[in-house]
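Our consortium's second objective concerns turning raw sequence data into structural hypotheses that experimental partners can test. To show how far this objective has progressed, the report includes one record in full. It was chosen at random from the queue rather than selected for favorable results. The single chain below, 415 residues long, was entered without modification.
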Amino acid sequence: MPSPSRLPPPGRTRTVEVHSRDARLSRGLSGTNLERAGDYNLRTVLQVIRLHRETTRIAIANQTGLTPPTIANITGRLTEMGLIRTAGRLHQGRGQPALKIELCPDGAFGIGLTIDRDHLAIAILDLAGAVRARATREIGFASPDGVLAFIRDTLDTALAEGGVDRTRVVGVGVAMPDGVDRSLPNQTQGYDAWVGVDLETLLTPLLPWPIHRDNDAAAAALGEAQYDQDFECPSFFYLLITAGLGGGLIIDRNYHRGAHRRSGEIGLMPDPTAGRPGAVVQDTVSIAGLQVRLAAAGYTLESPETLGERDDPGLAAVLDQWVVDSIASLTQPFVAVTTLFDPHAILIGGRLPPEILRRLAEGLDQAIGGIELPARPVIRPAHTAQDAPSIGAAMLPFMDRLLPSDSILIQAGRG
């Protein structure tokens, strides 16, 4: 394998706040012949090969609009970098068979770390977007020291399990909710220790790669976009049900952050269905809200993913009522999302069992169906429901160093 130094070098700033630019998983795969835009063209060609897994130079040229000599030069560079390889020839029709090109999944890896109020998770992705290893730990309001302990206990095993060459790791993405000092039910004292923590200083001793941070809902939306191979939903809203409730808005394959970088805060919308002043949607629609109900009924929630496995009528009754109340709490926010942004879909993800996510989606689809609207989105569970924040976080290093984005094109075109 070529030397890892062939990979594009990380930027000067080690910790990259994704909020500082309109990061995207680009799906508009047109190249550019602008002078000094070679980096953008290289990223675009790599993305074409990623999406098709196997293709030819002629097909790449047809899709990107780049000239055959440019494609030959770029694919040569990508081969030297260890990101693609030749895979024989395509035997069809007359003339010289075209040379097939395929992705090297082991050419680069991204590590995603989720730091949430009720759990920690790591996911490792290869260049093809496959999850090579994952680890989770149920822990309420983990401290910075708790996060370091989790990494020490799981990282080496995960790297070995995934067959990961450390020298091919391009970076670490961290998915973490905004407003960590915002109080939730059952929050332990001392959780505000996260306020002012510098992630680079904290994590670099154990994660010696460039570090990128985004909020968990944004990462979840990006994780879902990673699996939207056929452009099924170029515009969608991702509802993330975790300890709190967040949302991520993708418009025409771009993540939309808003003027103050706080778009998608659906959990903080007022909830008149709760019947008490000051209630917001995430008081009901969240793992924390569900925990309060379970505790009142005498149940302990060990892990949200295992809900529904126990054959207990009392537990089932609590879950049934929570689903009904959650549908009521989310109906008007979903109407607002639908009428204001007209997305192709509203996707529901989080740490709940697939059956509960399905019931929520079907119930909300019926509720929205009874309201006269100019258009109706598909409402369904997300493909990457449980792992979406970690998967999206693991995509951030790829987006920064290997995949196309408008910001790269703008930089390449500057004098």
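The partners drew two points from this record. The longest strand covers residues 119-126. The chain is about 35% helix and 20% strand. Both points have been shared with the crystallography group to help prioritize constructs.
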